[in-house]
Amino acid sequence: MLFTEAEDRLSTLGVARSSSLEEAIEEQPKFQAKRWKSEAYSRIVTCISSGARDKDTIAIEESSGPGAGAWLQFPRAPHHCFTDEEYVVCIRLRIALPVFAQGVGTHLVCRHTGHETGVCGTTMDEYGTHSLCCKRGGHVVRRHNAIRDCTAKELGNAGISHVTVEQTAPDDTTALRPDLCYHDSHSRAVFLDVEVTTRHVHRNTSSMRAGALIEQAEAVKKRKYAHLRLLPCIFSHLGRVGQGMQACIKSSCCDPDLSVRSKYIAGFYQSISCALQKGNVAILAASGPLIGP
Fold first, then answer.
1. Whether residue 153 is found in the same domain as residue 189
2. In 3-state terms, what secondary structure has residue 181?
3. Which of 12-21, 150-159, 174-183, 266-275 has the lowest mean pLDDT?
4. pTM for this one?
5. The pLDDT value given to residue 71
6. Which residue in 14, 144, 167, 270 has the fewest CB atoms around it within 10 Å?
């Protein structure tokens, strides 16, 4: 009955069918909720995408996927909470709306300031694309470090001991330093390297697809650390999580109790998602006047 009502509601809203209702009903009970959630999501995205610009469609897709919207869940810990300004800016980023307050007849100029290089001064768009790419002032590095430290803390919460932030090269043959190292259940060293991808302000998005930048960054990391057992931990600034990070989260908790494992995975996703979104706001706030709540 619930499936039928949901089906009728989606049809009333004009959301096209992507697969049959019967397939969802015939699924095993434990998979029905996940199947129907995926079905509803795919229909809604298809409906929105049909009338959206390429860059808007990519933004919708980059804000989706496992863990991408975990920061929107009810807070499980104090660091999951957002101020009104942070929440509004994150929502506007997610749905491709302007994030900067721009006066009439004025131009937005990046205010990121480095100790040695001074103010950036680059003309920006109101969507924050330049700001999220601008490395002057170290704000991008601080976002990276916040995600790295959050990942290390969550691995520790899973019972993994000796999680270390790599300050020195893992061997004498190279100066490359991955961000984290820990030992898995088989006592094998696993290395993690974090990166956040952002569509460049001058890059043409019409020929790109959602997740393309993440896949490119993962391939670069694997070539760069080919001599190590590395999991590239790549994120889109809009929240999408790469395959390497998903594998890390799923494999880090080996508790035989499925409810405990599920709770841990959900908490892990929520923590890194919040760290990423708050890092975005900090970068944007340092760059220009944000739109208020």
1. yes
2. strand
3. 12-21
4. 0.79
5. 94
6. 167
